[in-house]
Design goal:
Layout: H1 26-41, E1 46-48, E2 58-61, E3 71-80, E4 85-92, E5 95-105, E6 107-113, E7 119-125, H2 126-139, H3 150-169
Antiparallel strand pairs: 1-2, 2-3, 3-6, 4-5, 6-7
Length: 170
Amino acid sequence: MALLTVLEFPDPRLRTIAEPVEHVDDALRQVIDDMFETMYDAPGIGLAATQVNIHRQIITIDVSEDSDEPLVLINPSFESISDELEQMQEGCLSVPGFYEEIKRPNHIRVKALDRNGESFEMEAHDLLAVCIQHEIDHLNGKLFVDYLSNLKRSRIRSKLEKIHKLEQSN
């Protein structure tokens, strides 16, 4: 396994729309394993392939306390089951150090392929539902900062650009 580099906002590659996975094979499962290793190391609870500059519809998630419930979603889609919205503080490995309140449906039905290419459906609530939607947004070239006001988004962008410039000069 290998640690992958996580792209950070405002990197334009984060805006790339991911392509569907055509077939699941050992090479793809290796990418999934590398994504889990990267996500756990960060540490994070979700990672979309777009965030590691792989523009295919692959998501790894583990919202468990002990990091022992890995979930793989390949070519995922979802629909809201309830009109109720959950306001939850979201952060992102691609927007390090920033957390903002975002409203999303708190009960969804997800369709995807698992790590073996088998189709499945599941319902997700609360944190898992929010995490899945957040990661699917990444596959569509969208970041949680896109839900914020232009002012908040530009402040976050400016702060991260300054950090990136300092890192490059060192």
